[in-house]
Amino acid sequence: MDDAIYVGNAGVDGATNGGWLLGHFMPPGEVRHSTDVEIKWGVHPPGETRARWATGERRTALLVLVSGRFRVELPDRTVVLGAPGDYVVWGPGVDHSWYAERESVVLTVRWPSVPGYRVEPPVIR
């Protein structure tokens, strides 16, 4: 039964895997391995931005602000997450980018978990 349970800390575990806690990229056979969903605990210093826009997206995404101030850039609008609990959801086909206006913690859920979407690490502006 122990292999069906994992107990950890999002800040500690996420720091070793780009923030990601669950998804197809976790070791097969581990309870955190999933092709259904990906979950990330993103800790972003002020001025950090996505290295390039995500295009050709095939997943649905939910971003929930835990703390800070975080800007999500979408094709026709900008969404600012400014209060804990603020969130944005977009579906497949929506290009996006982001920028941490202040130090921010963001919980991201994406589904399904699709291999091949890794991009360059974020940059600080």
TrEMBL record:
<protein>
    <submittedName>
        <fullName>Signal peptidase I</fullName>
    </submittedName>
</protein>
<dbReference type="InterPro" id="IPR011051">
    <property type="entry name" value="RmlC_Cupin_sf"/>
</dbReference>
<dbReference type="InterPro" id="IPR014710">
    <property type="entry name" value="RmlC-like_jellyroll"/>
</dbReference>
